[in-house]
Amino acid sequence: MKLFKKILKFGGLAILALLACASVYVYNSGPEMPPDTGSLITKVLESPLPELVKGKKGFAKSHGLNIWYESITPERPAKGVVLLIMGISNDALGWPRQFIAALVDSGYQVIRYDHRGTGESDWVKDWNSKHPYALADMADDGVAVLNSLGIQKANVVGISMGGMIAQELAINHPERVATLNSIMSSGYIEDPALPPISSAVAWNLVKVALKYGIIGTDRNMIKMHIASRIILRGKANYQLDTKELAEQVLYDIRKRKGYNSDVSRQHQAAVFLSGSRYDQLKQLSMPTLVVHGTEDPFIPIAHGKKCAAIIPKADSLWVENMGHDLPGYLTGTLTKALIANFQRK
């Protein structure tokens, strides 16, 4: 019995030592922050927040869930409607302000919405891995938003997982899609013939989530999002708008429902459950634009190139010095290409 107790004692000490080493490893991990990050966050924390939701707000009902949306209209009659679909775990506020402004200033009504499980939309509390929802269900959320606003057709723009949802929407509801616009995305994320998504990037994102998310102060949450964006920028060389990002994170925390720690695994399950869309993408007939950054560290550009090759009416834009991100300095380049696709017949 004494020997057994000694084994337990030393085993416990070994576990504690391993945990201590792991804590030090996680604490010292993560990308280097811009030199003024601390003072910038302090200024944002102490200053009044700008109003980030200025359009018409509402809720659509989809599969029993309330889906929050915002519709922003131009001053003159709209040339068309743009439905924006954000990436994994992100809500509608993840779309850069100047990106939306450029589309609205060009004469388009812009609609953005919170994915189920994010932002002001309902969070799925009874989710389990045996009965997950799929990307097709999330595409139905976008259709529900259009229905709520009485809109028959939209130019659908999705990034990353949002691009996959946009593809599902075009496949399952082609009559609702004027044009398809898939940015830094994939038609089959597990395609054995293509390079896989980066496990190194995924692990780095997990580490910054552990580093800053366990003690989830407002300051740490802002740091976590800045660090994640730096990781997703990859080797691309441009400055992030850390002030805008800090304001967006703090707005979500203080004026909305904050961040759902469970949604990442739900969205991941939806992505992997969906499988390949290649056969269905080959049947699409609407004008399509596939955009991918040459420096994307997460979803290799080969995924975008394969989508562009198999979709019948696909144009493509391969953007130099762009990672898995929508950098502000490329707003003009990206929106010009999108609008050109909106106007295709």
Number of domains: 2
Oligomer: single chain
CATH structural architecture of the largest domain: 3-Layer(aba) Sandwich
What is CATH's topology name of the largest domain? Rossmann fold
Give the CATH class of the largest domain: Alpha Beta
CATH homology superfamily name of the largest domain: Alpha/Beta hydrolase fold, catalytic domain
Question: Numbering strands along the chain, what is their spatial order in the largest sheet?
Answer: 1-2-4-3-5-6-7-8
Supply the number of helical segments: 12
Low-confidence spans: 3-9, 13-27
Helix content: 40-55%
Strand content: 15-25%
End-to-end gap = 81 Å
Q: What's the pLDDT, averaged over the residues?
A: 92
Order of helices and strands: HHEEEHEHEHEHHHHHEHEH
- Indicate the structural class: alpha/beta
Rg, rounded, reads 21 Å
Shape: globular
How many beta-strand elements? 8
Plain-language structure description:
Residues 3-9 and 13-27 have low confidence and may be disordered. The chain is built from twelve helices and eight strands. The chain is globular, with a radius of gyration of 21 Å. Helices cover 45% and strands 15% of the residues. Helix 6 packs antiparallel against helix 7. With 345 residues, it is an alpha/beta fold. The protein folds into two domains: 1-30; 46-202 and 243-342, Rossmann fold (3-Layer(aba) Sandwich), CATH 3.40.50. The termini are far apart.
